[in-house]
């Protein structure tokens, strides 16, 4: 082992010192005593290496950082762990800051304060769910009992502190919250409907006709067609209700199904007053284009075959021909 | 096949073998390992292994003063090191034999 004369000791020593210093910079993970001893020995080792004829230390041994890593690895110390990518690091740091922030603490306190209110709410919701699904009743007392029962159950579950009961309580809360969503949605719909001014009853839309006669389908009655039991259409029939009041609350016809305007011509008495309870009312259709009027045809009907009458009717006037009205009838 | 990983597994044994032959100092050991055929062995790895074996009590050291150059620290295998060497060589032999057997059938096909 000879020292080359080509390399003056001072240069070699400088190079060794520099390299050593650079390697030492990466040995922070070593325990101080071990580190000192290792560096002392390493200095001597590097001097030997540098003494051999050849390229400078950097080229021979590689970068100081890599040398230090190899050294640590073979000594048995874990090398520096790989730092996580900057984005992940920043994200975790941000989440930690948020969790530790004042706002987070306030939110946590607020949620804790709401807990009793939630216990009550979930009890009531449980009661409502039971009412809606199992107990169908309109009895207010039973409804109150159901809700009170729900609240009692909710509080009873919350009072137990063991892990199993806590878990049950959590599951209970989640299930109630989920099941209540459709119920709440329906309830809100109902409230909305009751606030609605516009109602969908067809009769009520015709405010002018709110006292009109309507049939079972909700349609307004604009004319009545009397027939005798043998299926013959009658004309000029006067109708009265059980109080003797003329039937006078039919709706005035406006137009037919096709939208053609209808004109109603009322019968008149000898004085020229309108008699509105003569049926069928005389109604005509106006064809606006042709300028012609045609009578409104009677509807298609089915005359049932009536059983023979057991007793003769007290009032009979089954066939009449339209004639002048007698003045004895009261005209509305 | 990357021999770096293989070397990491057997460096302890190789260093012990070299020092057992003849007491040696750091750089000498590196040189002798490379001369024996382990050309890729890293200086830092050898040095680190030396330190570790020393810390583990498998090697003893002494300083030899030199007139020409710096004092050198020499390493020698002690009793613990000797035992470690024997156990490690047995493990190695067994492992190498197993692998040879495994390759035995294939090497005939490859030939």
Number of strands of chain A: 7
Low-confidence runs of at least 5 consecutive residues of chain B: none
Regarding quaternary structure, what we see is heterodimer
Q: Total number of helical segments of chain B?
A: 4
Compute the CA-based radius of gyration of chain A.
52 Å
Question: How much β-strand is present in the residues of chain B?
Answer: 5-15%
Order of helices and strands of chain B: HHHEEH
Separation of the first and last Cα atoms of chain A: 144 Å
The shape of chain A, in one word, is elongated
Query: Hey, roughly how much beta strand do the residues of chain A contain?
Result: 5-15%
Q: Give me the secondary-structure category of chain B.
A: mainly alpha
Put simply, the count of helices of chain A is 9
Name the chain pair whose interface involves the most residues: A-B, 26 and 22 residues
Largest sheet of chain A: 3 strands, antiparallel
Strand order across the largest sheet of chain B? 1-2
Mean pLDDT score of chain B? 88
Order of helices and strands of chain A: HHHHHHHHHEEEEEEE
C-alpha end-to-end distance of chain B: 19 Å
Overall pLDDT metric of chain A: 79
User: Unreliable runs of chain A, pLDDT <50, ≥5 residues?
Assistant: 1-9, 201-209, 325-331
The gyration radius over C-alpha positions of chain B equals 17 Å
In short:
Chain A is mainly alpha-helical and 332 residues long. Chain A has helices spanning 9-24, 32-51, 57-61, 64-75, 86-100, 102-133, 140-159, 163-194, 202-205, and strands at residues 237-238, 262-265, 267-268, 274-275, 278-279, 282-287, 292-295.
Overview of this protein structure:
- The complex is a heterodimer of chains A (332) and B (111).
- Chain A has 332 residues and is mainly alpha-helical.
- Chain A contains nine helices and seven strands, in the order αααααααααβββββββ.
- Chain A has helices at 9-24, 32-51, 57-61, 64-75, 86-100, 102-133, 140-159, 163-194, 202-205; strands at residues 237-238, 262-265, 267-268, 274-275, 278-279, 282-287, 292-295.
- In chain A, the strands form three sheets. Chain A has a three-stranded antiparallel sheet, with no helix packed on it. A two-stranded antiparallel ribbon of chain A has the order 1-5. A two-stranded antiparallel ribbon of chain A has the order 3-4.
- In chain A, strand 3 (267-268) and strand 4 form a beta hairpin.
- Chain A starts with 8 loop residues before the first helix and ends in a 37-residue tail after the last strand.
- Mean pLDDT of chain A is 79; it is low at 1-9, 201-209 and 325-331.
- With 111 residues, chain B is mainly α.
- A two-stranded antiparallel ribbon of chain B has the order 1-2.
- The two termini of chain B are 19 Å apart.
- Chain A binds chain B through residues 1-3, 34, 38, 41-42, 44-45, 47-49, 51-52, 60-61, 66-68, 70-76, and chain B through 8, 11, 25-27, 42-49, 51-52, 55, 68-73.
């Amino acid at each position: 082992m000879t020292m080359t004369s080509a390399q003056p000791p001072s240069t070699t020593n400088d190079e060794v010192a520099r390299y050593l210093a650079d390697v030492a910079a990466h040995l922070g993970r070593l325990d101080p005593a071990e580190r000192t001893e290792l560096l002392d020995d390493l200095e001597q080792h590097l001097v030997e290496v540098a003494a051999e004829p050849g390229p400078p230390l950097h080229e021979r041994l590689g970068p100081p950082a890599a040398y230090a890593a190899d050294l640590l690895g073979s000594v048995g110390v874990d090398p520096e762990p790989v730092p996580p990518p900057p984005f992940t690091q920043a994200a975790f740091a941000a989440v930690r800051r948020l969790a530790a922030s004042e706002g987070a603490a306030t939110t946590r306190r607020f949620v804790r304060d709401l807990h009793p209110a939630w216990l009550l709410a979930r009890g009531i919701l449980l009661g409502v769910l039971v009412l809606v699904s199992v107990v169908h009743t309109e009895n207010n007392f039973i409804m109150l009992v159901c809700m009170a029962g729900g609240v009692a159950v909710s509080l009873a579950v919350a009072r137990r502190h063991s892990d199993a009961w806590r878990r049950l309580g959590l599951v209970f809360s989640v299930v109630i919250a989920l099941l209540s969503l459709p119920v709440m949605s329906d309830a809100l719909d109902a409230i909305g409907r009751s606030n609605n001014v516009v109602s969908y009853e067809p009769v009520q839309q015709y405010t002018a006709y709110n006292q009109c006669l309507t049939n079972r389908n909700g349609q307004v009655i604009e004319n009545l067609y009397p027939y005798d039991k043998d299926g013959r259409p009658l004309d000029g029939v006067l109708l009265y209700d059980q109080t003797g009041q003329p039937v006078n609350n039919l709706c005035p016809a406006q137009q037919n199904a096709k939208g053609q305007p209808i004109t109603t011509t009322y019968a008149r008495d000898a004085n020229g007053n309108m008699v509105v309870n003569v049926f069928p009312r005389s109604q005509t259709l106006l064809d606006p284009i042709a300028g012609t009027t045609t009578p409104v045809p009677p509807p298609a009907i089915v005359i049932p075959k009536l059983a023979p009458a057991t007793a003769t009717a007290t009032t009979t006037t089954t066939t009449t021909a339209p004639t002048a009205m007698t003045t004895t009838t009261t005209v509305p | 096949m990357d021999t770096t990983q293989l070397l990491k597994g057997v460096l302890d044994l190789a260093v012990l073998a070299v020092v057992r032959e003849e007491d040696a100092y750091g750089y000498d050991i590196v040189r002798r390992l490379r001369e024996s055929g382990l050309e890729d062995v890293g200086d830092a790895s050898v040095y680190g292994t030396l330190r570790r074996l020393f810390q583990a009590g498998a090697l003893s050291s002494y300083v030899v003063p030199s007139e020409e150059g710096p004092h050198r620290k020499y390493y020698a295998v002690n009793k613990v090191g000797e035992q470690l060497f024997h156990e490690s060589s047995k493990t190695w032999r067994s492992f190498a034999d197993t692998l040879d057997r495994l390759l035995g059938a294939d090497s005939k096909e490859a030939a």
